Amino acid sequence: MNQLPLLSIITFTPLIGAILLLFVNKNSHGVLRSVAMAVTVVTFVLSLPLITGYNAPGTDIGGFQFIENVPWIAAGPFQMSYHLGIDGISLWLVILTTFIMPIAILSTYTAVEEKVKEYMICLLLLEVGMVGTFISIDLFLFYIYWEVMLIPMYFMIGIWGGKNRIYAAVKFFIYTAVGSLLMLVALISLYFKAGGGDFSILRFWELNLDPTTQMWMFLAFALAFAIKVPMFPLHTWLPDAHTEAPTAGSVILAAVMLKCGTYGYVRFAMPLFPEASAQFTPLIATLSVIGIIYASLVAMVQQDVKKLVAYSSVAHLGFVMLGLYALNTQGVTGGMLQMLNHGVSTGALFLIVGFIYERRHTRQISDFGGLAKQMPVFATMFMIVTFSSIGLPGTNGFVGEFLVLLGSFESELRWYAVIATSGVILSAVYMLWMFQRVMFGELKNPKNQTLKDLNAREVAIMLPLLFLIFFLGVYPRPIIDSMAPSIDRLIAQTKVQKQVAQVAAPAAPQLPAGHVAVPGLPEGHPALPATQEVK
Amino acid sequence: METIAMPAINLAVVMPEILLSCIAMVLLLVNVFVPGNNKAYLGYLSIIGLAVTAASVVNGWGPSVSAFNGSVVQDNFATFFKIIFLISAGLAVLISDRYMAQEECNQGELYPLILFATVGMMLMAAGTDMMVIFLGLELLSICLYVLAGFNRSSVKSNEAGLKYFLLGAFSTGFLLYGMALTYGATGSTKIQAISAYVMGNPSVATNPLFVVGMLLIATGFSFKVAAAPFHMWTPDVYQGAPTPVTAFMSAGPKAAGFAAFIRVMIFAFPMLKAEWGQLLWILAVLTMTVGNIIALSQDNVKRMLAYSSIAHAGYALVGFTATNAEGAAGILFYMLSYAFMNIGAFAVIVLIGKKGESNGNVQDMAGFGHKKPLLAAILSIFLLSLAGMPPTAGFIGKFYLFSAAIKSGYIWLAIIGVLNSAASLYYYLRVLVFMYMKDPTEEFDWAGATPAVALCLLVAVGATLALGVVPGTVLELAQKAVLF
Predict the structure, then answer these.
(1) In what residue span(s) does the NADH:quinone oxidoreductase/Mrp antiporter transmembrane domain sit (chain B) (predicted)?
(2) Are residues A158 and B437, on separate chains, in Cβ contact within 8 Å?
């Protein structure tokens, strides 16, 4: 490894920032904010070489690049290594994280006046956990980052949240911890099935487990990820957490943390347990579709803007899951894009909710109305974001949603796609209705008549997001291109293994390595029958 | 003339015990002859004594040496445990002076008693003869009975001492009776001889004397490590005993109990492995679940930690149930981690507490996180480590314990274990909730930390994090120390 350990640098820059903040006086809020802001901007800039240096067609080991691999713990039966790398799937999630962080921090400048120091430290530690989760190849390392992420978020909700914050924070923590602890058990037994060695997923991918083992391990992994996504009916922590969290917390939760769940499916649950994954596809698709419809209906009757956006998240992530489980190029690409799009759009929506909350200290839809006249800039931005969330053509939401639906129509999930499509209509209903009630009509409430439009800082927060909404909506090509090899690999991996597993007798547990050798698999579309071997 | 075969007496093997006993006796004399109300200097002398003993213990790392005709052994297993005891004793001594001054029971006997108890623990870990283990246990227990009731002006402390004495004597009876039955069945109290006898006479494995003997020994040790359903004494004793003593009791003697438990079960009864494996399975599940469920409803932090320590014994039993090298190494590592994180947590409680331990409820912690951010952050690290969150020692420890169980096929036990871990999150988080998320109810006055307590916290928090991030070396040592 003679190149710069870029991924480590990106992970630990925020940690260094957090340590720096410890030495800043807790009353100099300006310094605290500037340091945190500077650190996250530097982290973002440091992550840019990942895009330019990422070489889509040429794939390194297992499609991972920027590899760092250092032995870490080697005692007893276990060998853990500090093994990092990114492929087309994690690349953009890392970028999304480092991109959202400065925006989230900028949004706290006036929103958080108390315990600023602790808040900034929490934000920076959160970034360490999130980036680490996306770049870990070693499953043990992944698990550590996955858990570490919870702690700062727990404090953020619990300390700076709304009225019901303690309930929401504890619920968030315990819900997610229960899931991940079961994943830990599955992870350890997976390790023993692999017969020692290290915790690298590259090795685990090559295992050919028997169906029963696959089923149990898939259930454990999928449960952990389903809670994080969150999928119906495990979603109940999310509206609480979102509603109570401070704006930056909601933004990060929606934009990045939920993606850890869907990322888990793509990276671990699906390629590790392809047969079980196929076996549970109907269940997951059903839950996704229920999630889409149910969350949309619930969103429709919400009185609180933030809660409405929270429920819309559940629906959007239902689309992501549907796309991923269509398991064809369009579906998975759509799902992956939708992950990024949801990050941008919902992140922006939470910021917008934050803006009006900061002005009026209420989020009740009934308290507003006619804001468009008073705050034209705000209204324009809100409208763009609303359209993006609905998935209007020209905005980012459209591309992803379209690909998801296209992909699932072409897969065996056709009928699920039909139902899910009505979710698109429902999302237009609840979003537009909410927009109309908040922004249009008469400016009745006297308190709203003196509202100020967005200031320069707030516009600066929104502009990068708006740019992305249009950029991804019009020209998503570069992103899709760089993801394509990794997505093809994922599909091939999940399907080829499945095929082999069906052909091979259960008596032969270990495959010849050639069958599943990851890097050499077909470029572009694998010419595999897409709909037959999935039951 | 017939010569009497003299057993090989190798005093070097028990050098650390002799050394520490001498130091403790010297300290007793110093306490009598050097007047003065402030006995803190005795604490510092004890630390020096413990450090010297530790050096002598570490010196014994290497191949096993047996002494006193196979009654005492110096092996890596014992050495590792002795280090745990010395660390527990050292940390407990460091938090004592502050507490004793505050409770106005500043008597110098405390320190020698802790040292004598440590000698007892060391004998328990090194003993390969039931009688030596019993001697060690009694030396430990008698010191602990006194220590638990050390705060004479406190009714609770008195009650703790008496209760511990009565129940402890009871459990000792079980243990001794079990040892006697085993002796009756096999004709020896030496672990090696028992094992050899049973190898030669397989029929003895079904001899009721022998089986009941094993069960009674297991019962006695279960009392000592506070495994359910023999845990009843724990909460009252832990709550009533002076906090530094509680910290000490929860880490050192518990580890000593496990040291002797493991040695006896594995070496004396290897042929009944299947039977006691089943027994431990049940014990582990009961212990974890009872400890956690009752801890959920505790308001008093000391009491909560007492119940949680029952649960932690349960986690260790999970590793024991696995009956493989990973499990045993996991217990060693976990006991070491537990000494740091639990005594660390108690150290913070000592700092928060007021006279009469009036400040011990979780509600009293309201707003603490903003009043004393550093101390609260340290306590948070200990609690998160106890809850098993990475990147702390508690996580790595649990990881090894549960993975040992999974490796042995006890996957359900591991699942019950992690679910228990998740339940424990709730009560550990509850302290964090009060520290960080509630506003203070009253003005918080704070006497400040003494250098000794600060040193204890520094060592404990450093070790908790270091064992969590770079556990490699210690894990390797633990691996080398196991007996399998």
Answers:
(1) 128-421
(2) yes
> A165–B425: do the CB atoms touch at under 8 Å?
no
Tally of domains in chain B: 1
Rounded CA separation B153/A57 (Å) = 78
Residue A512's pLDDT is 40
A478 SS3 class? helix
Check B425 against A173: CB less than 8 A apart: yes
pTM of the entire predicted model: 0.90
Q: Given CB atoms, is A185 within the 8 Å cutoff of chain B?
A: yes
> For residues B57 and B43, what is the distance between their CA atoms, to the nearest angstrom?
21
Q: Is the peptide bond before A526 cis (omega within 30 degrees of 0)?
A: no
Rounded CA-CA distance A280/A324 in Å is 13
With beta carbons less than 8 A apart as the criterion, state whether A321 and A229 touch: yes
Q: Cβ contacts (< 8 Å) between B436 and chain A: which residues?
A: 155, 158-159
pLDDT in tens, A456-513: 888 988 999 999 999 988 998 888 888 888 888 888 888 755 455 444 444 434 434 4
Which of B315, B420, B437 is best to mutate for the A interface (most A CBs within 10 A)?
A: B437
How do residues A334-364 score in pLDDT, each as one tens digit?
999 999 999 999 999 999 999 888 888 888 8
A407, A288 in Cβ contact below 8 A? no
Residue ranges making up the domain that contains B211? 12-481
Residue B6 forms part of a structural domain: no
Taking an 8 Å cut-off on Cβ atoms, the answer to whether B390 and A143 are in contact is yes
- What Cα–Cα distance (Å) separates residue A388 from each residue in A227, A245, A349, A465? 26, 23, 10, 11
Answer yes or no: is B5 within a domain: no
pLDDT, tens digit, 9 for 90 and up, residues A518-531: 343 334 433 333 33
Count Cα atoms within 13 angstroms, Cβ side, for B143.
Answer: 27
8 Å CB contact of B437 and A184: no
Residues of chain A found within 8 Å of residue B399, distances taken between Cβ atoms? 184, 188
Tokens of A171: 């619920």
Determine, yes or no, domain membership for B3: no
Tokens (6 digits) for A316: 């959007």
